[in-house]
Fold this protein.
Amino acid sequence: MNKNFYITTPIYYPSGKPHMGHAYSSIVADIFARFKRLERYDVLFLTGTDEHGQKIQKEAKKNKKDPKIFCDEISETFRSLTKKLNLSNDDFIRTTEKRHYKSVIEIWNRLVNSGDIYLDNYSGWDSISDEAFYDEDEIEDKNGKKISKSSGSSVEWVEEESYFFKLSAWSEKLLEFYKNNQNFILPSSRKNEVERFVEKGLKDLSISRTSFTWGIPVPKNEKHVIYVWLDALTNYISALNFPDIEDKKYKEFWPADVHIIGKDILRFHAVYWPAFLLAAKLPLPKRVFGHGWILSDDKKMSKSLGNILDPIEIINKYGIDQLRYYLVKEVSLGNDGSISMENLKNCINNDLANNYGNLCQRVFSFIKKNCANKIPKSNNLHDIDNKLLENLKNNLPTLINLMNNQDLNEYIKIVVSFSFDANKYFNDSEPWAVKKKDPKRMNTILFTISQQIKNISILLNPIIPEATNKVLNSMNISKNDISIDKINDMNTLNCDKELNNLDILFTKIEDDN
Ligand code: MSP
């Protein structure tokens, strides 16, 4: 069986500092990457920055900087965000790198050779901030200004010489592909949206610009630069050393298993990208997952509303696991979801501090006090002990399936319920009450609950890696045993060594904090 897994985030425009939306796309992708590693897959997780195009050129000019120097600086803030978010990315690609140039030029040449590119004149509506062209029926008037109906950003009329990609020729092939690959676009509501768009018939796509210079020049006609989306999408194969299709990385990891993106860039990933690849005679990615928007107090985040939540501020104040957990617990992955500081506090207090954190802390301090700080051995489990462990074990196939279908919310709900059950089991079993009269029973309870803490920690590991690693390290669980196939394996529990000290995992947040 192929045990490789390739997952990507969108590459971010380094036009301003990273915000919560960027953090969200990256955290979601990181969780799936980490989960596949727990399933012992060889994972390649890619993120990076999308540095060409008019938007970046304009922003650099505004800052009185050369575009490359401007990108160097801001790309670095995205790179350091990967550390802050505790991302496990294996690579970070920048579209200004040499490896990416080579790859884009090859794609362009392949499209020329297949007869899919022609030179003509473009006239239509252009949005600099979306780096997208819109048809007449996709724009509207607002306060005397023309804006895109879908994104709300302003558009201007442009007329210039342009190369076109024969997108119209690929409608049928795309529809056939969607039909044969029902899970290519997820969630399925998004699939319907894309199919309706393609069924209307696709227009040829303008794929070069002459009105600015910040981009990859078109081979043999350097007054044109390649359209930034054709440039950007190619990053997914540049990172695999395309055009060297004999390269190990390319062979092992292409086609990608899943591109994680926001719903606003679905058309680029689910229509244009597969069409480019079909024309270039390259395999298509297996899945595009479009998540919803993060709203701040029910509104779209914007500078003018002053409701932008800065991920760095939240991490510095509350911690990275807290942010990771909150975002994916609170927001239903395929839909838009509102976040607020009030809910963040409740979520940290209820789920993390009172539930999982409290469970680990009270069990470990009980073991420290009563069992010389070692998890007691036991092979005398009662029905109630087996029931607790088996409930989790029996749910494993469901949990794996949920993660492999990006149903993160249901996964978390189930794992959190295990943690509630474990707390209840500990309360009801009252090891403190049997300590004197039946120490063997006390040992079994502690063995069982420790086993369950280990299991829950492995399942929560992709979501809150910092805290769960602390717990697993404190239990002396070896790295190799932190794996889905070791869940409920009694032998992985280390009963010979003392527990390592475990600091408070999640501090409860008081109201004025
Ligand atoms: N550069 C393109 C992507 C090219 S991929 C080949 C781009 N960049 S972006 O920086 O504007 O956005 C990157 C991602 O952030 C997108 O997936 C977008 O959906 C996501 N988000 C930006 N704001 C968001 C929210 N408020 N909520 C959730 N995600 C949103 O598009």
